Amino acid sequence: KIPRSSLYKLAGDKEIPAFKVGRHWRFRKKRLDAWLKKQENVR
Questions:
Q1: What φ, ψ does residue 25 adopt, rounded to 5°?
Q2: HSE (CB half, 13 Å, CA atoms) of 29?
Q3: Which residues face 39 on adjacent strands?
Q4: C-alpha span between 13 and 22 (Å, rounded)
Q5: Spans of all domains in the chain
Q6: pTM: predicted TM-score of the whole model, two decimal places
Q7: What is the dihedral of CA 16, 13, 11, 1, to 10 degrees?
Q8: Distance in angstroms (rounded) separating the CA atoms of residues 13 and 33
Q9: pLDDT digits (tens, 9 = 90+) for 2-41
């Protein structure tokens, strides 16, 4: 787990897949899972 503030910073810096609806960040589980899998292959 990571703090929400860190998660929102990563999203704002476009380091993780996310989008905003108004003032709220949204994360699609499918896209996050795919991103995580890709990151495992990079490291």
A1: -80, 140
A2: 0
A3: none
A4: 17
A5: 4-42
A6: 0.76
A7: 80
A8: 19
A9: 899 999 999 999 999 999 999 999 999 999 999 999 999 8
